[in-house]
Amino acid sequence: MKAAILVDEINAVSQLHALGIEGIRPWKKFFEAIHNVLKRDYGQCNVDYHMYGAIPPKHVDKQRYFNRKRFFSALDKDGIKVHKGLCHQSNGSLEEKGVDVMLSLDLYEFSLKHYDLLFVFSGDGDIVPAVERAQKNGAKVVAILSEKQPAKFMKRVVDGVVPLEGVIDLIDEQYVVRRSNTPKTTFKKESVC
């Protein structure tokens, strides 16, 4: 069985922030948690790790450029394949471009290469057509979504949803970076005795 985990960085970080989490360091711990869910629910298989993000041009923001290069280099060293989109400056702010397209193309391409399972950490409705095409090619597509994330179009088409809160529970707390001014919360369901 072949599988891939695809993470849309901006969408993922947005969902994490809504939970009071700044990030996961290192990100490999997040991928390993999903890999464990995959093994538990679907059995042993080969899994590729993919992260989709963007880097601002060096001449626009030198510090952010070098920080992002360092971040992507660390991902690469951890065996996570990095897919870089573009940053476009518009009205004084940077906008990420091409990331959803790359993720969508990979969903479709992996389905053509007979990947059985595709885990997608994104609630972006723009990738729904790619999800549907991957499914038509025989791939099972599972979304990783926070229970706070509406993502109604994504939830409607995927073959399953793994709650982000449950994934966070699988990651040792030392790797979960909490946002400042946010109290630590646990997402584990407490049993009532």
What can you tell me about this protein's structure?
40% of the residues lie in helices and 28% in strands. The chain is of the alpha/beta class. The protein has one domain (2-178): 5'-nuclease (Rossmann fold, 3-Layer(aba) Sandwich). The strands form 2 sheets. It has a 7-stranded mixed beta sheet, with helices on both faces. Strands 2-9 form a two-stranded antiparallel ribbon. α4 runs parallel beside α5. The termini are far apart.
Summary keywords:
NYN, 193 residues, alpha/beta, LabA, 28% strand, 7-stranded mixed β-sheet, two-stranded antiparallel sheet, 7 helices, Rossmann fold, disordered C terminus
Task: Write the topology of this structure.
Elements: E1 2-8, H1 9-18, E2 21-24, H2 28-42, E3 46-54, H3 62-77, E4 80-90, E5 93-97, H4 99-112, E6 117-121, H5 128-136, E7 140-145, H6 152-157, E8 160-163, H7 164-170, E9 176-178
Parallel strand pairs: 1-3, 1-6, 3-4, 6-7, 7-8
Antiparallel strand pairs: 2-9, 4-5
Helix pairs in contact: 4-5
Report the β-strand fraction as a percent range: 25-35%
Radius of gyration computed on alpha carbons: 17 Å
- By oligomeric state, this entry counts as single chain
Shape from CA axes? globular
Number of separate domains: 1
Please tell me the CATH architecture by its name: 3-Layer(aba) Sandwich
Highest CATH level, the class: Alpha Beta
Pfam families: NYN
InterPro entries: LabA, NYN
How do you describe this structure in short?
The chain is α/β, with parallel strands linked by helices and 193 residues long. It has helices spanning 9-18, 28-42, 62-77, 99-112, 128-136, 152-157, 164-170, and strands spanning 2-8, 21-24, 46-54, 80-90, 93-97, 117-121, 140-145, 160-163, 176-178. It has 7 helices and 9 strands, in the order E-H-E-H-E-H-E-E-H-E-H-E-H-E-H-E.
